[in-house]
Model the fold of this input.
Amino acid sequence: MGNSDSSRSPWKISLGAGLHGVVVDVEFPYHPGLLAEILKAEIADPLTLLLQKVLHISEFIGDPLADPSGGSTRSLPQFSVRQLRQRLATARVPRRPIPMQVRGEFCTSVLLSYGWWERSGPGHTPVGRNDIQRWTYAGFEEWAPSWDFTSEAGSGDESFFLGQLGQGDEANSILVVVLGQRARAIRPGIRDLMRERKVAALSVQVTGLLCHRNHLRKRNPELAAIAERWPYDFNYCLLLDSDHHHIADVREVPDFYSAYLWKCLWAREQAATDALPTLNDCYLIWEHTDLTKPDAIRYNLDSLQHKEQFLRGEFGEMELLQKSSPLIPEQPSLTAGSFQRLFGAIGRMQ
Done:
């Protein structure tokens, strides 16, 4: 397990010679209970977990969108996320990557653990010194929280941008990976549009390449090495690595797109003097909300604030160590890398 300084991003993706080489340096949070099912399944590297559920990438750089072959986008196959997932469940592997357009909702978060729909049994005994603390941790693990650590400025290496393209809930999503100049162009457009609408999920249309893990062996060998360890259900991803790849705002309001808001709070007064934060001194509080509706977000942010006030009354001053996304206005005291080390990194890969 490698060492890293406190400012290191949990993901580091850099381009090698050419547009398609990727070097990945990853540290990922773990301690007993969190991700237990992953380890039981002998999934060796932490990057697998982040890549397997997620993501959506977006770029709002204007129409018309161009087919990678130079033709009109009207000639590309077009699907909703639901249609594409259904077809992929029974389809034969195509001989090469397929340019296509896929519509769905995206947010910029990455799932931290398996969702309840995949768990084969309960995790390990939750951490904590009291029943409130143990429950907040158990619920945090059980219901698959997400973490947005790439959308804010200064979040890490700007050569990648992560999210998830789904429908209704992040469980119903397909992996999207955006690299290089695409990623550098995506971040500010998404951030500004979300701030303008006061939401954290948008309806979009992605133009990119549907890639099976086997296709990546030629197109991006480093990413292919990671993809070999994706679970069976994640044989495919949408890859955006060319100037012809785009994501366009379709200006529709989804029925809903559900996810969790969370805070990791450190009960400093309960810790030893001059001690560093440990999970046994932390409270992971959360609320489930609709990321597409400003009023629903405000409602659940208020609920989260009341939970924090209750904890302060019971256990003293609380310090915000990290948060689920920019929807929570306070600034956390730990960097992404330091927050991961709080959980205990389980591996490093290059």
In short: The chain has a mean pLDDT of 74. The chain has nine helices and 15 strands. The chain has two domains: 11-125+149-249, 257-333.
